[in-house]
Amino acid sequence: MIAAWMLYAIAVSGALALAALAVERALTLYRQPVRLAWLAALLAGLSFPPLSLLGWLAPRSGNSLGSLVAASLPPLLASPVHAYTRVEPWAGALDAALLGAWVTATAVILASLAATFRRLRREGTGWTREELDGFPVLVSLDLGPALFGLLSTSIVVPRWFRDLPAETRKLALLHEREHLRAGDIRLLVFCLVAVALVPWNPVMWWVLRRLRAAVEMDCDYRVLVGGANPKAYAGALLEVSERTGPLGLARPALAEPKSLLSRRITAMLPLHKSTRWPWAAVYGLAALALLALACEAPPPDRAAADLTGVPTPAAALGNAYPENTPGLEPPERVSFPLPAYPKLLLEAGGEGRVLSRFVVGPDGRAEPGSIEILETSHGAFETPVRNAIAGAVFRPGRLAGKAVRVQVQMPIRFVLPKPSVRMELRPSRR
User: At a CB cut-off of 8 Å and minimum separation 6, what does 169 contact?
Assistant: First the structure.
């Protein structure tokens, strides 16, 4: 179940991420801030799949008698190998392994983030406070230019920063001040923690990377709107980037990868206004289509995600459904746990037959209150059969493409194994 839900979450977040990319392209044509597109994609990608999971796990309604499609199944005609399968433990083991890996990965990432903050706080005790070009800053040995602190945020610059040309220093400090005013460090840390909760989703990590890039480009835009010369500002970006190295989570905002730095500088070039509106329309339509795709993506079928055996063809359940129910797709058994053979009858060598009737709900499970024993050779067979039916998984019956409640009738024969032959539950034959 967890694996199917993970794939669904990745697919939905992928559609949302592509929609955000289209919105970004459209907004970039008009030099508009783009961070909100990626922030929306990140929040939607993190919240939409869990909400669908809650609905997936919630008890299914449909107990009204008016929604019941009656159908009587004849004796099973499939061979014993195909008619019944044991419940395999691999599906539950896979869910447990995925859940364990999920929790472990999240814990490792959050612990690494906490360790980084502790290390920076420890190093920060040795930094000195100065005023540089009218900006209050903390001077470190080699960290920066960057922001430091979540609650009380300060601009941190390395010692070599004081040796840069005055114009370069001022532009770099203006850039950090814009980050400070916008609260960007708190936004990025919050988003990093949120994505760490779903470390298995590569789309969310890519969205986080694009959000960080969008934050930088929005900051560049605000600096230029404030009156900075684009050529001088681009030169300051290049000069500071050459002096700083990658520092992981504490990487300075001006020390981005060359690909991002190139995008930021390209975004400062003059626009070709005559050709931008057709492309903006194309990007807008693409974003709407992708949003619709994400919203309409059907969650994985709960019964199909609970596969624990080899599916039995629908013909194995019989095809004698009422003729007055055209278009009904009968339930298809996915797994049926082997009923426990009563110890008393096993020791006495007793065999027998049970005729059961129950309702397969839209969730692919037998409704507990619907299980009936119509006939039984011995009362001791009744409880094992009830327990087996309660643990069985079916593909739900469908009428006009919609899962419906179907009342089915299933005969079961208890047969003792011959010497050196594995005991199996065999279908009755008439």
Answer: 132, 133, 161, 162
| 3-class DSSP assignment, residue 415 | coil
Nearest-angstrom CA–CA distance, 16 and 263: 22
Going by C-alpha positions, the residue among 342, 300, 304 that lies closest to residue 8 is 300
Coarse DSSP helix, strand, coil percentages of the chain, rounded to the nearest 5 percent? 55, 15, 30
Q: Which strands form 135-140's sheet, in the order they lie side by side?
A: 128-132, 135-140, 154-158, 146-148
H/E element holding 108? helix 90-124
Task: Say whether pLDDT at 422 is over 70.
Answer: no
Q: Scanning the structure block, which residue is given the tokens 């094992």?
A: 384
Over the chain, what is the mean pLDDT? 79
Angle, alpha carbons 148-150-156 (nearest 5°): 10
What is the tens place of the pLDDT at every residue in 124-183?
Answer: 888 999 999 899 999 998 888 999 888 889 999 999 999 999 999 999 999 999 999 999
Q: How far apart are CA 132 and CA 137, in angstroms?
A: 7
90-94, 148-152, 164-168, 251-255: least confident range: 251-255
Cα–Cα distance, 200 to 12 (Å, whole number): 14
CATH number for the segment(s) 303-414: 3.30.2420.10
Backbone angles phi, psi at 394, to 5 degrees: -125, 155
Rounded Cα–Cα distance for residues 176 and 223 (Å): 10
Could you state, in order of their start, the residue ranges of all structural domains in the chain? 303-414
Q: Is this prediction's pTM over 0.85?
A: no
